[in-house]
Structure formats: structure tokens, C-alpha cells
Design goal:
Order of helices and strands: HHEHHHHEEE
Largest sheet: 4 strands, antiparallel
Number of helices: 6
Radius of gyration: 29 Å
Shape: rod-shaped
């Protein structure tokens, strides 16, 4: 009987108590909260970088279309990409050249713009971003603005010559 009681006492001392487990879980929750607060800003920077990469690709396509165009569009103020193809003049014709830049001829500029804006994920892009194209002194600028045309912080912009 003494051996049995000694064995029961030995088994009681092997495990962790409920209080000890709760304390460990609370410490882990605090550590996760601290680490998460340090990682979240880097995630937004990563989204912005990816958005700028998308705009850079579009800017390269536009510069390529300008170099292949028959006419030089000259300097032009910021023009919304989806409406630029419908405008008269050489600028609209240059941007229409984007149709063949991605290998398909049946896409309109609105389709190209919606394809790019659908990939923009950062907070700077906003909820309904519009892509604008501007050419000034030979420098092509592609930037994102909200639906009213106001620039979204100016950080989502790519320039190319």
C-alpha cells in the first residue's frame, strides 16, 4: 500500500498545472503581438514595391509604343490611361499601340488598365485607382491617382525616358 501511495504522489508531480500552462500561453501571445507589430510595416512596403513594379512594366510598354509610333506625341499633361485611347491626336494613337505590346490585339486600353489596377494591392493605390500617363520633356511618367484624379501620395509613380 505504501508503494502505491508513493507512486500516486510521483505521478502528480510529473505534469504541468493549468496555471503554468496559462502563463506560458500569455507570454507567447505577448511575443506574437510584439513581432507582428514589427512585421506589418514591411508587408506594406512590399506591396508598394510590387505595385511600382507593375507600373514600371506598364511604363516600359508605353515607352516602347512611343518609340514605335509614326508620330511623336510631344509633351502632354496627365491623361487617364483608359480614356487616352479615345482622345484625338497622336497621343491617343501612341497609347493604342499598347494593344499589340502585350501580344493581343483585341484588348482595349481600359482592359489593360483594369488588368494592372486589379494587381495593385498597397494602401497608396486606394480602393478605385486610376492610372495616368504624362509626358514632359521626353520623360514619360506613369502614376496612380484616385478616381477624382488627385495624386495618391505621389509615391506610386514611375518615370522613364
Amino acid at each position: 500500500m505504501k508503494n502505491y501511495l508513493a507512486k500516486l504522489r510521483e505521478n502528480e508531480e510529473k505534469g504541468f498545472s493549468l496555471v503554468e500552462l496559462i502563463i506560458v500561453m500569455a507570454i507567447m501571445a505577448i511575443l506574437v503581438g510584439v513581432v507582428a507589430s514589427q512585421v506589418i510595416p514591411y508587408m506594406e512596403k512590399s506591396r508598394q514595391s510590387k505595385d511600382q513594379q507593375q507600373l514600371s512594366s506598364l511604363c516600359t510598354d508605353i515607352v516602347s509604343a512611343i518609340s514605335q509610333a509614326d508620330t511623336d506625341p510631344g509633351d502632354i499633361a496627365a491623361t487617364e490611361l483608359s480614356s487616352a485611347g479615345n482622345s484625338a491626336g497622336s497621343w491617343g494613337k501612341v497609347l493604342e499601340g499598347l494593344r499589340s505590346a502585350d501580344g493581343t490585339t483585341d484588348k482595349s486600353l481600359a482592359d489593360i488598365e483594369s488588368g494592372v489596377t486589379g494587381k495593385l494591392k498597397s494602401k497608396l493605390a486606394g480602393t478605385s485607382p486610376k492610372i495616368y500617363v504624362k509626358r514632359d520633356n521626353g520623360v514619360v511618367t506613369v502614376f496612380v491617382a484616385d478616381s477624382t484624379g488627385a495624386s495618391v501620395g505621389g509615391k506610386l509613380e514611375v518615370k522613364s525616358e
